[in-house]
Write a structure and sequence with these properties.
This protein is mainly beta. The chain is built from 5 helices and 26 strands.
Length: 389
């Protein structure tokens, strides 16, 4: 070695440290940035033609998981749905509505940790034919303790669609009250579904009915195009009991008698229908027309303070023409009273109150659809009317 010349030094790197440097150079940091994003698929898919009706909105993630799904319709209303526990999918609670544009915002994380966001939009087809409904009670109404929830459909409901419709209808009560849906043929001939409590409502109960029916085919390719929501309350516990042999009607408040009225029930030829009836409507003044109950043109009489029970014509009403009130049962099925007594009953009973008829000779079974006659059946009989039994 010459003077002033230095040999290059060589540093030894420990093996473990060398391995670590190698992993850093070609390890996870570089591969994460190039990792593919999760594949998110929205159904229905956007396309040149409108999306078909009859299915929910679904979102699926392949190669990762969904972290957020936000769906809104063209009015800005959020569409509720359920995200799977593993994040693999999201499904709307109801089906798509006709002629509606939906916007779906999603966020996802791939199995490699890459985050992504996407937006999808689609429009559904028009409904060629529509079914609608009328609900009883009306929204915000206060009714009696025997009132069912009654939903009358404009058009027939196919038996194959009834279970799905029944599942879409929810009754929530405060306090909790047990009850069930049952399918009924209304007196008008239309299809109907009623919800009755197992026992009479407790006074003061708050009831909410929610029907997520939009996008359901009721049969014959006839669709519901909207959801239905309404609320009502249960008022005072007012009932009445008619004792046919005794010619009396007794009013009860909270289970205690508060007044008895004498009157005339149906004759042996036209006995008053028995069982528990529900007040379906009231009318302060009405003309009693014999033709409406199958008696031709026998009479046309003006009456006041008319409380309607059955759709076939069982009423409580004033009968000033009857000179045998409280002595002889000689009506054509109604319970007639003096005008002042009829007003007492009219004011005491609300729509939804019950009127029980005892001691009648009538053997006719009053069909549930002949008014709001849900109490004509036992609880076990009523449960058999459900499409989900």
């Amino acid at each position: 070695m010459h003077a002033g010349t230095r040999r290059p030094t060589t540093r030894l790197i420990p093996a473990a440290l060398a391995a670590g440097l190698l992993m850093t150079a070609c390890g996870t940091g570089a591969s994460q940035s190039q990792a593919p994003a999760a594949k998110v698929t929205v159904t229905p898919v956007a396309g040149s033609s409108a999306a078909k009706l009859g299915a929910p909105i679904s979102v699926k993630a392949d190669g990762g998981r969904l972290t957020a799904v936000d769906v809104k319709d063209d009015k800005g209303a959020a569409v509720p749905g359920r995200l799977a526990a593993d994040g693999s999918s999201w499904t709307s609670q109801g089906k798509v509505r006709p002629a509606t544009t939906y916007t779906v915002h999603t966020k996802a994380t791939s199995s490699g940790g890459k985050e992504s966001a996407a937006t999808a939009k689609f429009t559904t087809e028009q409904a060629g034919k529509v079914n609608k409904l009328t609900n009883t009670p009306g929204n915000g109404q206060t009714v009696g303790t025997g009132m069912p929830v009654s939903i009358l459909f404009d058009h027939p409901v196919a038996k194959s669609s009834r279970a799905e419709i029944e599942k879409a209808l929810k009754v929530t009560t405060q306090p909790h009250v047990e009850g069930a849906w049952g399918w009924v043929k209304d007196w008008s001939g239309k299809d109907r579904i009623d919800w009755r409590p197992k026992d009479y409502w407790p006074s003061g109960t708050k009831v909410s009915v929610r029907g997520a029916l939009s996008g359901i085919n009721s049969g014959d390719d006839r669709w519901f195009v909207r959801d239905y929501d309404f609320d009502f309350s249960i008022g005072a516990d007012h009932k009445a009991v008619i004792d046919v042999p005794a010619h009396t009607l007794t009013m009860y408040a909270d289970g205690k008698p508060v007044g008895t009225i004498r009157g005339s029930a149906g004759s042996p030829q036209d006995p008053t229908r028995g069982g528990v009836h529900t007040v379906r409507s009231k009318n302060a003044a009405e003309t009693m027309d014999s033709a409406t109950i199958g008696h031709g043109n026998e009479w046309m009489l003006d009456s006041q303070w008319v409380t309607h029970l059955t759709a076939s014509g069982t009423f409580l009403h004033s009968a000033p023409w009857n000179k045998s009130l409280g002595v002889v049962n000689n009506s054509h099925g109604c319970f007639g009273m003096t005008t002042s007594d009829a007003k007492r009953v009219y004011d005491f009973l609300s729509v939804g109150s019950t009127v029980e008829v005892k001691g009648t000779t009538s053997t006719k079974k009053t069909d549930v659809g002949n008014g709001l006659e849900v109490w004509q059946e036992t609880w076990s009989q009523w449960q058999q009317r459900s499409a989900l039994k």
